[in-house]
From TrEMBL, chains A, B:
This is Acetyl-CoA acetyltransferase. InterPro entries: Thiolase, Thiolase-like, Thiolase_C_2, Thiolase_N. Residues 4-220 form the Thiolase N-terminal domain. GO terms for molecular function: acyltransferase activity, transferring groups other than amino-acyl groups. It comes from Kouleothrix aurantiaca. PANTHER family: ACETYL-COA C-ACETYLTRANSFERASE, NON-SPECIFIC LIPID-TRANSFER PROTEIN-LIKE 2. CDD domains: SCP-x_thiolase.
Amino acid sequence: MQPVYIIGTGQTAVAEHWERTAGDLAREAFMAALGNIAPERVQALYVANALGSALQVQGQMGAAIATALGLQGIEASTIDAAGASGGVALRHAYLAVASGAYDLVAVVGVEKVTDVLDARLEAGLALAGDADWEGVHGATLTAQWAMLMRRYMHQYGYDAVDFAPFPVNAHANGAANPKALYRFATSVEKVRAAGMVADPLSLLDSSTVADGAAAVLVASAGLARELNAPLIRIAGSAVATDTLALHQRPDPPWLGAAARSAANALSSAGVGTGDVQAIELTDPHGIAATLGLEACGFAERGAGVQLAREGAIGVGGTAPLATGGGCKARGDTVGANGVFQIVELVRQLRGEAGKAQVANARVALAQCLGGIGATAATHILVAE
Amino acid sequence: MQPVYIIGTGQTAVAEHWERTAGDLAREAFMAALGNIAPERVQALYVANALGSALQVQGQMGAAIATALGLQGIEASTIDAAGASGGVALRHAYLAVASGAYDLVAVVGVEKVTDVLDARLEAGLALAGDADWEGVHGATLTAQWAMLMRRYMHQYGYDAVDFAPFPVNAHANGAANPKALYRFATSVEKVRAAGMVADPLSLLDSSTVADGAAAVLVASAGLARELNAPLIRIAGSAVATDTLALHQRPDPPWLGAAARSAANALSSAGVGTGDVQAIELTDPHGIAATLGLEACGFAERGAGVQLAREGAIGVGGTAPLATGGGCKARGDTVGANGVFQIVELVRQLRGEAGKAQVANARVALAQCLGGIGATAATHILVAE
């Protein structure tokens, strides 16, 4: 397999973009990723999008976004794995370049969710769960994370307040990210005083879905050198799956697909969790971040919450998490999240993260989940 | 890039499978494709599916089908490009094996469309068009093909009856295919006497959407040799796009994406249209088959209809088309069509097509379209 590099990134602000189309958002992110590179050098486009069919009445988002970017004619397709779409699309781009078929593939994650009423949006988000066992009973993803949080608290003896450092960290970092949906700090007290969304998950421990697009350019070594791009290598790439329905898993608080994809990605990159200096996870709630940290191997089972309580997930800690604000503060763009994660990690590896910069970041891990981890995509990035 | 082979195929009957789930259909096709191969040797699964979100309330069809096949844990994802999904999923599998990442990838196309009422099904099918310019005005794909047929008749001086040999050929072949939805012959007279669906398209010149699943196993040369599988090589693979909206194309009866993907696939395979002995196209109507034949280079512009009138598209002709019945007689399984096409061509290249067998078939071409060709995927298969 040929080595594969990320040579450009771009993102829109995450917001309620009522006056802009999905194509318009995708174009802003793509143009930023291109920089000085001529658009006609892009040979293929993989679009990460989860809710185009449900909310945008569009089943060929690949072709639609190709046209919006002025790339019509090009190979383009749509990858849908709910919240894991961004990571899975990057995986397909990685394979296309690693095969030698292409020198330059664009991955664009785009989601446009705020121009429908809540009931329709909830129905769209429920596509990430099991329709027969979960959706039909009204068990939203938030409700399921809440149940996992209760189980975890019971199993390991924590209180809800123990999870509050996750949103506090995410908001602290989001406050420094001009593209974030929420650019204000919060506190443990505020998180627990906020209204309940699904007890024990409060409003301030729950992400908000919003519109946005992110883009990355995936290139061969030859092209990366020719363009004199900073060399950020995709050193590991893996996707794994689990059952959709939570009740079908023998041990629900263990995210098996997340664990498997992380182990495969770390192993193929030849690094361990101790080498990783910046982390992006699917973290709409503290419990999701906790289970993700444990599945990836950053903490033993039952000890993920400790990392947050001890400050290890902060920018100056040993496991800096959500340095761009994560799902909670940057905003939850569903199928685009996985691409936003890569944009943030490249920012870290290039030393361009300003107030949220991790000192000397050389190795980073991104993991995104579809639903409650039925699909998990993990990538390891290394600055060369 | 590593050479890539198809070493197993399977398909369900195309029918109204009211009592079976998508997972159940996928399993039947997958088990047939496996034959004696142990399922745990399959390393990744790419699911071609267009209407899971719209009709099956399922946004992670990749993970869902992986579980249904007993493969949970495996890398799996969903590829959605409307009617081109099957070919695009095969393209991703081809790249994954060509890269050396995997030795064995399964592609499963599955669609379950008959257990909803017509209005919802029509809304699902309309996802393949442009929502703002076409869907909102009620311009179905059938209506758009009808407009293209009118334009073509005007431009080249044909009558509607001139297109009837396409469904007649498809039904003649479908009658010999035990998996086909319609296993009866028809005639030019019957096609034109049938009720109008969208003038000048009659009921007997229009495909019927139905349920079904098809599976192919895509493997490295090493594995193909180890398993002693008949060597059918994917010699060419290409995807291209065009605008979604028909009115945005400078020359609507010219399917640009179809032409581009066919030219790229033929060129990378090192063969010409004269070498191809079996053809599968997206052929829900005679006009679609006509424009596909012209875009691929089997006929000059305006001369595609001649091939059918002269009998060239028959099993004994120079350009045998739809030997398994095509969309018209095998049945239109939307996102799964592209995988059914490959199953049929492998049957031809292995000499297993019975009454519909083309003598000494060595090279075959499959092309599937999303909507009116906004996405087009073309593959060239060669028997070694």
